[in-house]
Amino acid sequence: MKHGKSYKKARELYEKHQEYPISEALGVLANLPKAKFDESVDMAFRLNVNPKHADQMVRGTVVLPNGTGKTVSVLVITRGPKEQEAKDAGADMVGADEYLPKIKDGWTDVDVIIATPDMMGELGKLGRILGPRGLMPNPKVGTVTMDIAKAVREAKAGRIEYRVDKSGIIHAPIGKRSFTSDQLVENAKTLFQELVRVKPAAVKGVYVKSVFLSGTMTPSIRVEAGSLN
């Protein structure tokens, strides 16, 4: 992969192979060249898991205390009394008969879809559209629920979904470069502690093999996992 001059210059501003405590890593990031937009700050965790085995799959959601800095649009698919509950909780779009045909035609202009269990029979038919985009509601991550108000509030407040990929890595946002260091540290620790909490019982030995921090347009910085406890 070829990188531009700005990226290469950023690489020279810190030691590539050194592990930095999270606060120092964020200090390094703050000194790297910035893009013309407010970049996301992302973390990558290489875990000692084999996601091919069901008992080593790491997946779930966590609410970051300081949010992600992103305005999240939420669609609730439901009918009846839960529609008003969704609207009162702050959902951007609510309904079923209006939105199911739109999705069938390829519309996916939304960040999160939440549904009541009774709607999954109809939504399941749209899996080929929603699945590849990560929009299919799933009870394991709290997007298929009868507690619509809670799910909407959490999605709006900065709930993120994490899932280990086939390489055993979890990628997740922890905020924006405009956040304060304290906000990013708190979000990073919350995410890390959640991953430790859901450590599969089948995993033996070192669980978190390495941690990296980066901005949207920056090279990655190695983070000392112990500093996230």
Structure overview:
With 229 residues, this protein is an alpha/beta fold. Helix content is 29%, strand content 21%. It is built from eight helices and nine strands. The chain has helices at 5-11, 22-31, 82-89, 99-104, 120-123, 127-130, 148-157, 181-197, and strands spanning 40-47, 59-63, 74-77, 93-95, 112-115, 159-163, 169-176, 208-215, 221-223. The protein has a four-stranded antiparallel β-sheet, covered by helices on one side. Strands 4-3-5 form a three-stranded parallel β-sheet, with helices on one face. The two termini are 34 Å apart. The mean pLDDT is 93.
SSE succession: HHEEEHEHEHHHEEHEE
Radius of gyration: 19 Å
Would you count the extended β strands for me?
A: 9
Number of domains: 2
Can you tell me the CATH topology of the largest domain? Ribulose 1,5 Bisphosphate Carboxylase/Oxygenase
Query: Which class of secondary structure composition applies to the elements?
Result: alpha/beta
CATH architecture of the largest domain: 2-Layer Sandwich
- Tell me about the largest β-sheet: 4 strands, antiparallel
Helix content: 25-40%
Strand line-up in the sheet with most strands: 7-1-8-9
Low-confidence stretches: none
CATH class of the largest domain: Alpha Beta
Report mean pLDDT, rounded to a whole number. 93
Proportion of residues in extended strands: 15-25%
Shape: globular
Number of helices: 8
